[in-house]
Amino acid sequence: MENELASLRAQRGWSQARLAEELGVSRQTVISIERGRFDPSLPLAFRIARVFGRTIEDVFHPDDEA
């Protein structure tokens, strides 16, 4: 799954640590999601979308739609 997490985070000027704190996860989790090594659970995906005021579809999309 591809995602826009790094660019959304950068638009806010947030570090990975700041985003991790906002989401209640570790910085390593944020890094793994940004690099596409880890797909978040549905509840976490909803939290991520909510933090940025976006829909899940705005943040995450299948590899073939990248």
N- and C-termini, Cα separation? 9 Å
Order of helices and strands: EHHHHHE
Say what the CATH topology is.
Answer: 434 Repressor (Amino-terminal Domain)
**What's the number of extended β-strand segments?**
2
Report the total helices.
5
Contiguous uncertain segments of 5+ residues: none
Describe this structure in words.
The protein has about 70 residues and is mostly helical. It has a single domain, classed as 434 Repressor (Amino-terminal Domain). It has five helices and two strands, in the order βαααααβ. A two-stranded antiparallel sheet has the order 1-2. The model has no long low-confidence stretch (mean pLDDT about 95). Keywords: DNA-binding. This is Helix-turn-helix transcriptional regulator.
TL;DR?
Residues 5-59 form the HTH cro/C1-type domain. With 66 residues, the chain is mainly alpha-helical.
